[in-house]
Amino acid sequence: MVDIVEALVPGGKATAGPPLGPSLGPLGINIKQVVDDINNATKEFDGMQVPVKVIVDTDKTVTIEVGIPPTASLILKELGIEKGSGEDEIVGNLTIDQVLRVARMKKEGILSYAPKSAAKEIIGTCVPMGITVEGMPPKEAQKAITRGELEIPDEW
After folding, report:
1. For residues 152 and 10, what is the distance between their CA atoms, to the nearest angstrom?
2. Closest of 63, 66, 54 to residue 12, by C-alpha
3. Most buried among 33, 46, 48, 49, by the most CB within 10 A?
C-alpha cells in the first residue's frame, strides 16, 4: 500500500514539526532526510507556502512532488511587495530578467512551450496587479516582445 502525505510548507524552511513530522512519523521513514530533500527542492520559493506531496511506497521508497505557487505570488516575491494594486495605481516594475525567472519557475505549469509566449503569459498576470514591465504597461510590453523590441531568448 502506498501512503501519501500532502502539506503546505514554507519554501526551503520545512521542519520535522507539524505539519510534516506527525504525518510522516508513523510511516517508518527517515524524517530528517525527507525534510532535507523537501527544503532542497523548495529553496527557490523562500518566503512562500509551497504545496508538497510525499509518497511512501511499501518498500519505504520516498518520492517528493513539489507544487508551484501561483504566478501572482512569484511576481510579488520578485518585486518584494506584499500585494498588487486594486486601483489604477502602479505598485511595481518587473524587468525582463525577472519575468523570465518567473517563467522558468512556472515552466511545468504554464500553457506556453516557448520562452517568448511564456514571458507574455507571465506579463499578462501583471495587468490587474498594477505592475509594469520595463516601465511599460503590461499589454504594451507584450506588444514590444512581439515586435522584437524586448529581447527574449528563443530557447530556455
Report:
1. 31
2. 66
3. 48
How far, in Å, CA of 78 to CA of 65, rounded?
23
Residue 54's CATH number: 3.30.1550.10
Domain boundary among the residues 41, 66, 91 is at: 66
Q: How far apart are the first and last CA of the chain?
A: 39
Structural domain ending residue among the three candidates 43, 66, 89: 66
Give the model confidence (pLDDT) of 61-107 as tens digits.
Answer: 999 999 888 899 899 999 999 888 877 899 999 999 999 999 998 88
Angle at 140 between CA 149 and CA 132, to 5 degrees: 105
> Could you tell me the three cell numbers for 23?
504525518
CA–centroid distance for 52 within its chain: 12
Cα dihedral: 42, 56, 26, 8 (round 10): 30
- Give the number of domains in the chain: 2
Cα distance between residue 116 and residue 118, in whole Å:
5
DSSP SS3 for 58? coil
All three cell numbers of 76, joined, read 510579488
**pTM for the full predicted model:** 0.71
**pLDDT (0 to 100) of residue 105:** 86
